């Protein structure tokens, strides 16, 4: 009986750890058209700090500007 209880406790602890790690892995935000924003990298660093990275997915004319930054997503 004790062995099955300890196995259950260990499984619950692992599930809790993985759920917390996933929450703090970082965030990706879509900020709009690359054509309107211009330099996605600079805009992301201004908004989220020097650890943020920005990129234009889909080309400068029709693409979208995305920011990746550490920490949880807000809002």
UniProtKB/TrEMBL annotation:
Localization in the cell: Secreted
Signal peptide limits: 1-23
Keyword Lyase: no
Alphabetized InterPro entries for the sequence: LCR
This protein's UniProt keywords: Antimicrobial, Disulfide bond, Fungicide, Plant defense, Secreted, Signal
GO terms under cellular component: extracellular region
Location (main, coarse): secreted
Residue stretches in coiled coil: none
Gene Ontology annotations of biological process type: defense response to fungus; killing of cells of another organism
PANTHER family: DEFENSIN-LIKE PROTEIN 183, GENOME ASSEMBLY, CHROMOSOME: A06
Entry similarity comment: Belongs to the DEFL family.
Protein name (Swiss-Prot/TrEMBL): Defensin-like protein
Species, as recorded: Brassica campestris (Field mustard)
Lineage: Eukaryota, Viridiplantae, Streptophyta, Embryophyta, Tracheophyta
């Amino acid at each position: 009986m004790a062995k099955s209880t300890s196995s259950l406790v260990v499984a619950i602890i692992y599930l809790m750890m993985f759920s917390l790690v996933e929450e703090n892995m970082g965030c990706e935000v879509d900020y709009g058209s690359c054509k309107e924003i211009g330099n996605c990298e600079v805009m992301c660093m201004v908004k989220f700090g020097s650890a943020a990275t920005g990129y234009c997915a889909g080309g400068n004319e029709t693409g979208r500007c995305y920011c990746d930054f550490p920490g949880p997503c807000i809002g």
